[in-house]
TrEMBL record:
Primary localisation category: membrane
Membrane found in the keyword field: yes
Highest taxon above the source species: Eukaryota
Keyword DNA-binding: no
Organism: Zooxanthella nutricula
Family matches, as CDD domains: EFh (cd00051)
Lineage: Eukaryota, Sar, Alveolata, Dinophyceae, Peridiniales
Compartments it resides in: Membrane
Keyword list, A-Z: Calcium, Membrane, Transmembrane, Transmembrane helix
GO cellular component annotations of the record: membrane
Membrane topology: Multi-pass membrane protein
Name of the protein described by the UniProt record: EF-hand domain-containing protein
A GO term for molecular function: monoatomic ion channel activity
Transmembrane segments: 21-48, 123-145
Domain EF-hand per the UniProt entry, residue ranges: 169-204, 212-247
Length: 263
């Protein structure tokens, strides 16, 4: 009973949807990670091969090439041999590409060593950045957002709670409007009071926002006056607004039904 009561509390509904979405996102995360790995692998092989070819190229700078072929600390390699630091092997290359996409390091710094290679490598790097940031990341993000939205909409308890909360807020708002309409404070609204207050632009705009057509005030009054007392009490007003809100068709149908009954 305690668990059921806890889950039904409004304060925990966002938390429940978030936890459910995070758990449901694990499958999407797996496939997204796989796509990232494949992409980094394909481009990584290309860049690592270019870096290795440059290192063994006899036309390259002999002194720097020989020095960079030795084992150097990361801070020294990053300053003196950036090509080896970023592209000295397949794993390092894939890690560098991940840094470039995720913001772990500015991608312009990762691009700079490629200027020692033929221009095609620089162009391919620009292609990689464009594809990753404007296509791959946006697609992955949209998948996660769509999955979260579907889980939020399919959460039956969440939907019910949202509906109940919306109904409660609507009723509270209608109570406030009824108090504004009840100018003499006797707990009921007459036709004259309703016609007078319906000229208020503030109330008219609010009813329009609720898709409630109030142009036919007299007919609207008779529809709400369920006990035919000539006065609308708070219960009749709130119930009538709740039943008639929505598209104007609801009010039109109700008016037609009322006139048919009078005939």
């Amino acid at each position: 009973k305690f668990t059921r009561a806890l889950r039904s509390m409004m304060i925990f509904r966002e938390l429940r949807v978030m936890v459910s979405s995070l758990c449901g996102a694990l499958i999407s995360l797996f496939w997204s990670t796989l796509i990232f790995i494949i992409t980094f692998f394909i481009f990584g092989v290309f860049f690592a091969d270019g870096a290795m070819s440059h290192a063994v190229d006899p036309m390259a700078d002999v002194v720097n090439s020989a020095r960079c072929m030795t084992q150097l600390p990361d801070d020294v390699a990053r300053a003196d041999c950036p090509l080896k630091y970023y592209y000295g092997g397949l794993f390092k290359t894939m890690a560098s590409l991940y840094w470039a996409v995720s913001g772990g390091e500015d991608w312009s710094q990762i691009l700079a060593p490629l200027h020692h290679l033929p221009a095609g490598y620089v162009l391919v790097f620009y292609l990689f950045i464009t594809f990753s940031m404007f296509a791959m990341l946006n697609v992955v993000t949209s998948v996660f957002v769509d999955s979260t939205m579907q889980r939020s909409q399919n959460d039956r308890e969440f939907v019910v709670q949202c509906e109940l909360q919306g109904k409660q807020e609507f009723m509270e708002t209608m109570e406030q409007i009824f108090e504004e309409l009840d100018s003499d404070g006797n707990g009921s609204v007459s036709l004259s009071e309703l016609e007078e207050r319906m000229n208020d632009p503030h109330l008219t705009a609010y009813f329009s926002a609720l898709s409630l057509d109030i142009k036919q005030v007299r007919k609207l009054f008779h529809l709400m006056d369920s006990d035919r007392s000539g006065q609308i009490d708070k219960r009749e007003f709130i119930s009538g607004c709740f039943n008639l809100k929505g598209e104007a068709k609801n009010l039109d149908v109700a008016i037609l039904h009322h006139e048919t009954r009078r005939v």
